[in-house]
Write a structure and sequence with these properties.
This protein is an alpha+beta fold. It has two helices and three strands.
């Protein structure tokens, strides 16, 4: 599977990183690692997220941090 981010999703990642880095640079590294690991897991296991009410949309909850990743599998 190939992972593609929408422009909005890419911007969200940048904004999350900037927000956390401004408050705690060490925590920003941990948040980045968790988010990247979650995205990598989608490549290996695309069905890992829960199905949503919108057809074809799945939701992955990141561990340790309150981030939700909504995605589709094509």
């Amino acid at each position: 599977m190939k992972l593609r981010l929408t422009p909005r999703a890419a911007q969200d990642l940048v904004e999350i990183a900037d927000y956390v880095r401004a408050r705690d640079p060490v925590a920003a590294t941990r948040v980045r690692d968790v988010l990247l690991h979650a995205l990598e897991s989608l490549v290996l296991f695309p069905e890992v997220g829960r199905m949503q009410t919108v057809e074809g949309v799945r939701k992955l909850v990141t561990p340790r941090f309150p981030y939700l990743i909504y995605y589709t599998v094509n």
